[in-house]
Amino acid sequence: MTSVVVLSMWLLLGTSPPAVTAPVAVDVAATAGKAPNGYRDASGSVDSLVQDTLRVTVRRGSLKPQRGYWAAEVTLHNGDGLPHPVRLSFRPSYGDVTHSVVRNVELAPRQRLVTWLMVPVAWHSGVLSVERPLREPLSEHLFPDNDRFEPVLVVGNSESFEAATGLSKTPEQDDPLFSVRFIEAQDAPRELAAYAGFEMVVLTESATKVPADVWAVLESYALSGGRLVVANPPRDLRERLQLLQSVPLQDAPYAFGGVWTCDNSAATCRHKIQSELSTLTDDSRGKTRPQGLRSRWASKVSFGDDDAPLLETARAPVGPFLLLMTAFALLVGPGAWWLTKRRGPVAVLIVVPAVSLITCVVLIAWSVLVDGFAVHTARYSLTYLDGARARAVTVGLSGWYANLSPEPLRLPSSSVLIAPHDTEDLMADLDWTGGLTVGDGFLPPRTYREWGELAVVPSRARLVLRDTGGEPKVQNALGVVVEEGVVRWKGQVRRLPRLADGEEGALGAPEPDPGPSQGNAADSLLEASLGSPAQYRLQAALPLFRRDLKEQEFVVRTSGPGPLPTSAASAEVEASVHLIRGEVRP
């Protein structure tokens, strides 16, 4: 009706109505947010400090992983003709954290040295100090890049990465597929801790330009659970990564982790990286996941099977303490009133402090006599033995409790100590000089702590099977007592007897085939050995031990301190289960 009236008015005025403009078509796809494409370069920027003949170049804003450690890169250039000792330290600049990370290096004359400080990911900012004797320290504030996109570490430069994947750097206004930190192969860190927190590491550098010790740490990363993508696989890749001898290169499990190659195809490499990152879940992140106190236990009165503490000593004796508190309340409450009526106020002034003193003495006696001064621990681990190359790959965790803090603990550089994800800011003092020394804070007094551990260390441990034509014999050369185990020999699964270290025994009778619906012998042994709390924390590492046994493969259960790097600490082992998988040696 309104349109008719308007048209009549235009006719009365003697003018023609304006032309009707056609509606403009809107490109919804163009106005909507673009799909993620490309990568974001999160390698950070560099800043230089100069003092006399020493030049210090620090990389700022470097990408950090979601757990574990981020690596602070420091380049030292000694322009003097004399050697100089240099101490690097990093201390958080927020909260009440009093711990620090340090490293001592010796600069040779005219040397340029790239060194790294592995810093817990919960330390979001801090002050890096470079100190020399009789000199003022040089300081630099560092703020690592905590990106919301999946962090990926690339050993190589941006040109080789783009050539291998066909991806390009994403404009700032667009969302990337993931964030990338580039590290030159010659300067790459040699410690496993610098790589362990990344879910994926991509090698794009030419194999001939990668130093042998960098190859070794990249292999350790894959062995201990990482995803290693070799974008340009060399012809001798099987010799460099020796567990690939009998498996296809394209998609190969590698102990607890995996190795993927791109076959020099950018489309294949891009698809492989995208598909792997898109399938990541919280349950698949990290082969060992120690639990902290804050999110799971601080607000709980009772625990489920999965999140229960590993150590019974960590549980407060609620029953005895409740009885003691009830008795104390009765004595100082109704008991004091009754005593006032019978004996007068003076008696109350004597009895109530005496009751308080006795209560304190009982609590102290309980702490000394029951908890004691020893370090208590519960330890669980999974170990893959690579007997042909004499090394052991271990993924494990421990629960700890003690009245007094233990002495500093030294660990090899091929191992990683992992804090609970929600209490990483409670990390200890870390000294990365010649390995890792864990100092104050590793185990605070009267505080339950859990630590995860990864390690790739040399090992001569093995099981030796002797078949002289009669009943085969097996000899335990693992260095620990074998509680039980299974081995596949000549197509049949045989039980292993309990064997002390160095003892020899006969194999059990062949086990009947349980059928595909009943699982396999290795999976059955794992289920019977590891309880629910340990399985929950080692969930992502279990598939290797659930696989059916190949010919001459074995899985055994042991106890005691186990092969974890922290087994060097003096402690009373209250509970332990260690599963070892490998091949018997003739």
Q: What general form does the structure show?
A: globular
What is the beta-strand fraction? 25-35%
Q: Could you give the distance between the termini?
A: 100 Å
Report the C-alpha radius of gyration, rounded.
31 Å
Number of strands: 29
Write out the strand line-up for the largest beta sheet, numbering strands in chain order: 19-22-17-16-29-28-25-26
Task: Name the structural class.
Answer: alpha+beta
Which spans of ≥5 residues are poorly predicted at pLDDT below 50?
1-33, 294-303
Into which percent range does the helicity of residues fall?
10-25%
Question: Mean pLDDT, as a whole number?
Answer: 83
What does the model show?
- By secondary structure, the chain is an alpha+beta fold.
- Helix content is 22%, strand content 31%.
- The protein contains 13 helices and 29 strands.
- It has an 8-stranded mixed beta sheet with strand order 19-22-17-16-29-28-25-26, covered by helices on one side.
- α8 (318-332) runs parallel beside α9 (334-343) and α8 (318-332) packs antiparallel against α10.
- The longest helix has 27 residues, at 345-371.
